[in-house]
Amino acid sequence: MTETPEAAAPAEEPVDPFLEKGRLLFAGEWKFVTAAPTVDVLPPMQGVEIALVGRSNVGKSSLVNALTGRTALARTSVTPGRTQELIFFRCVPEMMLVDMPGYGFAKAPKDKVDAWVATIRAYLRGRVNLARVFVLIDARHGIKPVDAEILDLLDKAAVSYAIVLTKSDQVKRTDLEAVIADTKDKIRRRPAAFPEVFPTSSHGGKGLAELRAAIARIIDERS
Q: Where does the record place the EngB-type G domain (predicted)?
C-alpha cells in the first residue's frame, strides 16, 4: 500500500519586527512637554516629530491616550475645538508626539480660528524634523471637503502624511471596507500622501499596534 505524503504545513507569515518596536516605544513613560499657542514658543527641534491633526472632535486626544496607554495624558472633551494649541509629548529623546489644533467646527471666534490656521501653516513650513503628519478622519464619514483642505495644505507644504480612520469600531465591516477603499482612491494622486490607511479604535484597541509599528518604522528610518 502506497503511503500518501503528508500535506506540507502552510508557511507562516513573517512577523513584522516593528510591531514589538512600536509596543516598546509607546510603553515608556510619556510626559507632557509644552503647549505652544504660536510658533514663537515652540520647543527646540530635537529628534523626530510625529504630528496628529484632524477635524474637531474626531478623537485626537483619545488616540494619543490610547497609543500611549494612558487615560489622561491628553485632555479629551465632547466640546469641539478644545485643543487650541500645539501640544507636545515626549517619551524618548528620538521622538516627539504633537497634538495639533482641531479644524472644522470649532466653537471659537473667527479671528482665533484664523490664528490657529496660521500657526499650523507656520509649523508645517518651518519644522524640518517633522517626519509625518497623521490626519485623523472619522470612519463613519470618510474624507469631507474640510478634510480635503488640510490635505491640500499638506501637499503644498510637501509634508508627508497618512490617513488614520478613527472610530472604526462604530462602522460595519462592509461599510468600513468601502470607506478604506474610497479613502485610498481619494489620496492616490496626492503627492505627499502615504498610501497605507490605518483603521483604528481608541476604545477597542483596533489598529493601534499597526499604527505604533508604522511610527516606530519612521523613527528607525529617520534616526
A: 46-221
The residues facing 130 across adjacent strands are 49
pTM, entire model: 0.87
Print burial letters for 177-194: b (CB count within 10 Å at least 16), e (below 16): eebbeebeebbeeeebbb
Q: Give kind and range of the element (H or E) at residue 155.
A: helix 145-157
The superfamily CATH assigns to domain 25-222 is: P-loop containing nucleotide triphosphate hydrolases (3.40.50.300)
Give 140's contacts (C-beta < 8 A, 6+ positions apart): 167, 170, 171
Which residue type, as a one-letter code, is found at position 151? L
Strands ordered across the beta sheet of 193-199: 31-36, 86-90, 95-99, 48-54, 130-138, 161-166, 193-199
Q: Are 135 and 151 in contact (CB under 8 A)?
A: yes
Q: What does the pLDDT look like over 65-120, one tens digit per residue?
A: 999 988 778 764 444 444 578 999 998 888 999 998 888 755 667 777 777 778 88
The residue type found at 124 is L
Domain spans of the chain, in order of start: 25-222
